[in-house]
Amino acid sequence: MTNARDVLFRTLADPTRRAIFERLCRQGEQTVGALTAQAGISQPAVSKHLGLLRQAGLVRDRHEGRQTHYSAQLGALAPLMDWTSEMAGFWEARFDQLEDLLKRMDQ
Amino acid sequence: MTNARDVLFRTLADPTRRAIFERLCRQGEQTVGALTAQAGISQPAVSKHLGLLRQAGLVRDRHEGRQTHYSAQLGALAPLMDWTSEMAGFWEARFDQLEDLLKRMDQ
DNA sequence: TCAATCAATAGCCATTTGGTTATTGATTTT
DNA sequence: AAAATCAATAACCAAATGGCTATTGATTGA
Lengths: 107, 107
Description:
By secondary structure, chain A is an alpha+beta fold. Chain A is 68% helix and 13% strand. In chain A, strands 1-3-2 form a 3-stranded antiparallel sheet. Chain A binds a DNA duplex through helix 3 and helix 4. Chains A, B: It comes from Mesorhizobium metallidurans STM 2683.
């Protein structure tokens, strides 16, 4: 019942987690250590957030020795954009209906 | 510290609440009773969701006798679109940097 | 006027969530 | 080989969240 869109919205809802994702978008690939250094929370907390971001498809990880590098997967934002324009579309459709109605009333 | 964007993401995170907003987008203005009839939760629960949606600027209410009509405020989605394209922008900027680097290496 | 209806609020409860510290497994470094 | 470092996992906890029932206030209908 809980689809990909639900997961996406829920994952992006937390400000700390979104900040981590934003940083990966702005600055590209980062290690867990680098992300922890500026997140203001503990390393395990950061790892947990990264795990959720990965489950949502928003980041991917790359292991290199004992470090793990994470990077943003921008494509994962597509459902978000789709949803937004879908909502905008409904709104416009209703606006057009109203316009038609007014046009008919005018005649 | 908790800005409008935070509120927006947090408000849209819950599937039930988002479904209510979607319905208002698709079908236009609805009363609390109409929304409750298909939400699968109690009237007070629906009212609570509507209260949060209103706080986020996603809906507005209109009182008419003892009924309250709610409608979607599409403009409130702008920060969401802005954020998404901002993220996409960062990604592209880094892509360009990479492209430049490769071009320089090629010479 | 009295009963019925509509929506908001109050008060409560179970679950989820985001954080912590402690530990473990794996890889480097000395 | 032993010590140090990095990131994931485990176990726990407090706070936030989303739901419920009961109630209230306001409006409408009989």
